[in-house]
């Protein structure tokens, strides 16, 4: 069995004149990431690895989750290919992971994550909101064999307010 958890980065600020990769989280993004990560605690299984896009907003969201869930920092890695908006690079990335990883968490971007949720999960999602989380379970032994899975958990910030 494989468990893929996708977390879209928190709401980012357009207030600063910086490159897209450097945009920081807004206060709302920080608050929502805290809300979702704390809600996950009740049915949380520690991931074997956590991967994040190098974009500031994704990395900041990931760090909030790592801290709130007491994830071992040695299982956290920043991966350039996850700075992807279409989804092909993200799919290629997780399909190439070693089979001994059973449970992974990835922090990244839309439209990639909405698309991946709809390709691989069994619950249609119109748009994965910022700071939202989706867990998809697959009854396979290798990441390369992933096809259609079961959407197990969806946590959207709006449902926690």
| Side-by-side strand order of the widest sheet | 3-2-4-1-5-6
- Indicate the proportion of strand residues: 15-25%
CATH superfamily: Phosphoglycerate mutase-like
CATH topology call:
Rossmann fold
Q: State the secondary-structure class.
A: alpha/beta
Over all CA atoms, what is the radius of gyration?
14 Å
Order of helices and strands: EHEHEHEHEE
Give a written overview of the molecule:
The structure is a single chain. 39% of the residues are buried. The chain is α/β, with parallel strands linked by helices. The radius of gyration is 14 Å and the shape is globular. The protein has a single domain, classed as 3-Layer(aba) Sandwich (Rossmann fold). The mean pLDDT is 95. It has four helices and six strands, in the order βαβαβαβαββ. The protein has a six-stranded mixed sheet with strand order 3-2-4-1-5-6, sandwiched between helices. 27% of the residues lie in helices and 20% in strands.
SSE diagram, text form:
Blueprint: E1 2-8, H1 27-40, E2 49-52, H2 56-68, E3 76-78, H3 88-95, E4 103-108, H4 112-120, E5 133-138, E6 150-155
Parallel strand pairs: 1-4, 2-3, 2-4
Antiparallel strand pairs: 1-5, 5-6
Keywords:
27% helix; Rossmann fold; globular; alpha/beta; 6-stranded mixed β-sheet; 161 residues
Condensed summary:
With 161 residues, the protein is an alpha/beta fold. The protein has helices spanning 27-40, 56-68, 88-95, 112-120, and strands at residues 2-8, 49-52, 76-78, 103-108, 133-138, 150-155.
């Amino acid at each position: 069995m494989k468990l893929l958890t996708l977390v879209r980065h928190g709401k980012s600020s357009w207030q600063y004149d910086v490159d897209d990769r450097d945009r920081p989280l807004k206060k709302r993004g920080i608050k929502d990431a805290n809300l979702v990560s704390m809600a996950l605690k009740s049915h949380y299984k520690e991931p074997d690895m956590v991967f994040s896009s190098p974009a500031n907003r994704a990395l900041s969201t990931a760090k909030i989750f790592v801290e709130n869930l007491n994830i071992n920092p040695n299982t956290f890695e920043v991966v350039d290919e996850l700075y992807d908006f279409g989804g092909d690079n993200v799919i290629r990335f997780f399909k190439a992971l070693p089979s001994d990883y059973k449970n992974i968490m990835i922090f990244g971007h839309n439209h990639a994550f909405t698309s991946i949720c709809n390709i691989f999960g069994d619950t249609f999602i119109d748009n994965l909101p910022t700071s939202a989380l989706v867990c998809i379970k697959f009854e396979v032994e290798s990441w390369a064999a992933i096809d259609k899975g079961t959407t197990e958990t969806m946590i959207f910030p709006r449902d926690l307010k």
